[in-house]
Recover the amino acids of this structure.
């Protein structure tokens, strides 16, 4: 199947959850894929490409001139300036130190706060119990647009997604501003994420098929 055909199937699945596909943003996760595949994704109607690693994303940007690029993987502080310079949004801000480094490069940078709502030690993200103080700090440094999380590796992802939604709602009340983006849901769990209120999906395999070895 082509990317366009897979995208049509994804949109049908979104609609089957009761959500309007036009109100759900899809980030096409292009990690490990060739620039030609990125071009195919853009030709299919996708507009945002997501990369896990700064240098891989920057290298592709040299060849793929269209589209907006989001950094969705863990960001080291020493790469904060490069990421801020080249990516339209950084979704994986999980510490005040990282936020400060990004702000030194570009205080207007659009960001999401990543929260480890699955509470799995191998995953990045702020501790949910300390997230509210971090969110308040980051909102004073950068253009905070919302929150991001990964679902658990196994089991029902619904409680984790519901917790991120609750944290986002609480943050809106505390900050007195809208945080419109809830980036949660990947190829294996995006329907559950949509049911919990996701507004942005990060999709790879369901759009591109299995990753190359």
């Amino acid at each position: 199947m082509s990317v366009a055909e897979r995208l049509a199937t994804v949109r049908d699945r979104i609609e089957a959850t009761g959500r309007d596909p036009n109100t759900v943003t899809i980030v096409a996760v292009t990690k490990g894929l060739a620039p030609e595949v990125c071009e195919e994704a853009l030709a299919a109607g996708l507009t945002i490409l997501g990369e896990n690693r700064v240098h891989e994303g920057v290298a592709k940007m040299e060849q793929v001139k269209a589209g907006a690029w989001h950094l969705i993987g863990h960001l080291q502080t020493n790469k904060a300036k490069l990421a801020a310079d080249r990516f339209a949004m950084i979704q994986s801000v999980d510490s005040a130190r990282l936020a400060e480094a990004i702000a030194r490069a570009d205080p207007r940078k659009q960001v999401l706060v990543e929260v480890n709502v699955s509470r799995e030690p191998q995953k990045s993200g702020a501790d949910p119990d300390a997230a509210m103080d971090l969110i308040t700090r980051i909102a004073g440094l950068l253009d905070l647009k919302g929150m991001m999380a990964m679902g658990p590796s196994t089991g029902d992802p619904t409680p984790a997604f519901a917790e991120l939604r609750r944290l986002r709602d609480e943050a809106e009340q505390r900050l007195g501003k809208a945080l419109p983006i809830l980036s949660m849901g990947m190829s294996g769990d995006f329907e559950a994420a949509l049911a919990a209120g996701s507004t942005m999906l990060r999709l790879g395999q369901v759009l591109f098929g299995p990753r190359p070895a």
About this structure: The first helix runs from residue 3 to 16.
